[in-house]
Amino acid sequence: MSSTGIARGFFVVYIQEAHPVDLWQVSSNVEDGVLFASPQTAGERANTAGICVVKLAIKMPAVVDGIDNRVERDYTGWPDRLYIVGTDGRVRYKSAPGPFGFSTGIWSEASSRSCDPRAVNRREP
């Protein structure tokens, strides 16, 4: 429940792996032992997502994009994005690409505003 008394749900949506070993491996992933190939099946993606949830100690519910990457394509989620989606399914807020495009101040404002039925959509520049 938010400070406004309106229930909210927060989810992580695991999309395609950002730095798979078979496409674009980065040295920090090698050093940290984060070595995943691009999944070929929904089961492989779900397994990789589960490992990431555990290793990153993610405490909120996580869901997994399909192997067709539909959620990533529809929401341009790569590499990271923050969204607020209303109960009507409309996007109320879309952050700039992360992780460097996130603004906690703008996120907080958008989150508060999303509880106001008079709120207008706003996106980060």
Short summary:
The protein is an alpha/beta fold and about 120 residues long.
Number of helices: 4
Q: Give the end-to-end Cα distance, rounded to a whole number of Å.
A: 29 Å
Based on CA atoms alone, the radius of gyration comes out at 16 Å
Shape field: globular
Spatial order of strands in the largest sheet? 3-4-5
Q: What's the β-strand tally?
A: 5
Low-confidence stretches: 119-125
Tell me the fraction of residues in β-strands, as a range: 5-15%
Question: Which secondary-structure class do the elements indicate?
Answer: alpha/beta
Structural notes for this entry:
The radius of gyration is 16 Å and the shape is globular. The C terminus is likely disordered. The two termini are 29 Å apart. The strands form 2 sheets. Strands 3-4-5 form a 3-stranded mixed β-sheet, with helices on one face. Strands 1-2 form a two-stranded parallel ribbon. The chain is of the alpha/beta class and 125 residues long. The protein has 4 helices and 5 strands, in the order βααβαββαβ. Strand 4, helix 4 and strand 5 form a beta-alpha-beta unit.
Keywords for this entry:
125 residues, alpha/beta, three-stranded mixed beta sheet, two-stranded parallel sheet, 4 helices, 30% helix, 12% strand, globular, disordered C terminus
What does the secondary structure layout of this molecule look like, with pairings?
Layout: E1 12-14, H1 27-32, H2 42-55, E2 62-64, H3 70-75, E3 83-85, E4 91-94, H4 104-114, E5 122-123
Parallel strand pairs: 1-2, 4-5
Antiparallel strand pairs: 3-4
